[in-house]
Amino acid sequence: MPPPTVNARLAIEGVWKQFGGRAVLRNASVWAYPGAVTVLFGRNGEGKSTLLRCGLGLLRSDNGVTMLGDHRFFRPSLSALALQGLFFLPDRDLFSPELTLGRQLGALRRRFPEARPELLAEVLRDPALLERRSHELSGGERRRAEIGFARARAPAVFLADEPLRGLAPLDGQAVADHLRALAGDGCAILVTGHEAQALLDIADHVVWMTGGTTHHLGTRDEALAHDQFCFNYLRNP
Q1: Is 126 a domain residue?
Q2: pLDDT score, position 108
Q3: Is position 28 within any domain?
Q4: What is the pLDDT of residues 56-84, one digit of tens each?
C-alpha cells in the first residue's frame, strides 16, 4: 500500500496520460517526504519523466492532482509550484549558456533573498568555477553546480530527473552524496535514474514504475526483498 499522503510534502497522485490513444500512465502516483529521498525506478519508456512532467504542469495530464504542502493543484504549473518552494532539475542543462555561474547566482539571490550562496560554494569546491559558463564545465562540474544552486535556494522540495546520467562513477557518487546532504537540510527529495547501486544507497523510499503505473516498495531493504522488482528491473534493467 502507498504511504499516507498526509505525511508527504509533495504528492503527485492518480495521474493518467494517453498519447495518440495509447495509455502511458495509468493511475500513477509518487510522493516526497521531508528529510527523505524517494527514488523512482523504471525502464526507459515506462513513463517516469512523463509522470514528473505531468505533476509539474509541464505536460497536461488526462487526470491527476499535485499536492504541495497545503496546496492542491488540479492544473499545476511549475512557476506556481516554485513559489511554494519546489526546485526542479530537468534531464537537460539547467543554466543559461550565455552567463557565468556567478552572474546566475546573482540573479538567484535577487529573486530569492533568503538563498544561501555559501552552500553552493561548499558543493562546487572550486570558487573559480563561478567565473565560467556552463559549457566550459565538465559534466560532473556542471551537475555539481546545479545541485549547488538547489542547495543555495534551500527548497522545500527538490525533484531531479536522472541527475546521475552520463556521469563518471566518482562524480555520480559525489552528486548522490550531495542529494543526501540536501535531504539532511530537511528537503523532500524525489529523483529518477538507472544507477541502481548509487541511488539505492541514498534511498529512504523506493517506487517502481512498470506497465504505466507505480508500486511503492517501501524502504531500500524492502525493495531488495521484492522478487519481481529484483528480477524484472535490477537483473534485467
Answers
A1: no
A2: 81
A3: yes
A4: 999 999 999 999 988 999 999 999 999 89
Of 32, 8, 31, 36, which is closest to residue 184 (Cα–Cα)? Answer: 36
CATH code, domain with 92: 3.40.50.300
Beta carbons of 203 and 234 less than 8 angstroms apart? no
In a domain, 202, yes or no: yes
User: Quick one: pLDDT at residue 152?
Assistant: 83
Cα–Cα nearest to 91, from 203, 14, 16, 167:
167
> For the chain, how many structural domains are there in total?
1
Which residue range(s) make up the domain with 198?
5-96+154-234
Q: Give this prediction's pTM.
A: 0.89
Contacts of 147 (CB under 8 A, 6+ apart): 89, 123, 163, 175, 178, 179, 182
The three-state (H, E, C) secondary structure of the chain, written as one string: CCCCHHHCCEEEEEEEEEECCEEEEEEEEEEECCCCEEEEECCCCCCHHHHHHHHHCCCCCCEEEEEECCEEECCCCHHHHHHCCEEEECCCCCCCCCCEHHHHHHHHHHHCCCCCHHHHHHHHCCHHHHHCEHHHCCHHHHHHHHHHHHHHHCCCEEEECCCCCCCCHHHHHHHHHHHHHHHHCCCEEEEECCCHHHHHHHCCEEEEEECCEEEEEECHHHHHCCHHHHHHHHCCC
pLDDT of amino acid 56: 97
What's residue 174's pLDDT? 85
In a domain, 198, yes or no: yes
The whole-number pLDDT of residue 1 equals 44
With a cut of 70, list the residues of the chain below it in pLDDT.
1-6, 236-237
